[in-house]
């Protein structure tokens, strides 16, 4: 069936087109009504826009239209200023992405060095990292996780799409410091490790 003749698909398309931010299927249903099969409409639209100038994509269970990656350069009127992340920020972002949610003390335990508050601030200002509550251990340290913006920026649908550590090592993107990520495993002593790290972070904050 052509989408031009399907009122449900057209309604979902209109809701997405007018949205200021990506929307989940549940949010779309609030606009188009409970009777609409939003999932089927989204699949129809995704197929319809595949290979066109704009495409419908899903990032972290939220849907939005975006310019086809191979055409994005046509819309750039000014050269974007590239800001290179520091090594500390790159390592911190990688640790959070692969081990989230993690506290500052856990990040420092993996990296082997302390991180400045500014490092996390930079990642949060970029909308790649967010506070994700507090761990339910003594000291209740703040924990961090990645955001939907992180997935969108790196073209990932979910964190399961992150390359494996073996893939990164094979590509030459891991050095001996980064290999610590591979060996970080709390195992059966996870709660004990979290308690120790929480106490360390609590002492630091106090």
Q: Estimate nothing, just give the exact number of structural domains.
A: 2
- What would you give as the CATH superfamily of the largest domain? Winged helix-like DNA-binding domain superfamily/Winged helix DNA-binding domain
Work out the radius of gyration. Answer: 21 Å
Order of the strands making up the biggest sheet: 3-5-4
Low-confidence runs of at least 5 consecutive residues: 78-82, 175-206
**Count of discrete alpha- or pi-helical segments spanning 4 or more residues:** 10
Strand content: 5-15%
Mean pLDDT, to the nearest integer, reads 77
Fraction of residues in H or I helices = 40-55%
Q: Could you spell the SSE succession in H and E letters?
A: HHHEEHEHHEEHHHH
Can you count the beta strands? 5
Q: What is the CATH class designation of the largest domain?
A: Mainly Alpha
Distance between the termini: 64 Å
Structural class: alpha+beta
What name does the CATH topology of the largest domain carry?
Answer: Arc Repressor Mutant, subunit A
CATH-defined architecture of the largest domain: Orthogonal Bundle
> How is the main sheet built?
3 strands, antiparallel
Structure description:
- The protein is an alpha+beta fold and 206 residues long.
- The protein has 2 domains: 3-71, Arc Repressor Mutant, subunit A, CATH 1.10.10.10; 87-205, Arc Repressor Mutant, subunit A (Orthogonal Bundle), CATH 1.10.10.
- Helix content is 46%, strand content 12%.
- It contains 10 helices and 5 strands.
- It has helices at 7-18, 25-32, 38-49, 87-99, 104-111, 117-125, 148-153, 165-170, 180-183, 190-205; strands at residues 54-59, 62-67, 102-103, 129-134, 142-146.
- It starts with 6 loop residues before the first helix and ends with a helix.
- The model is unreliable at 78-82 and 175-206 (pLDDT under 50).
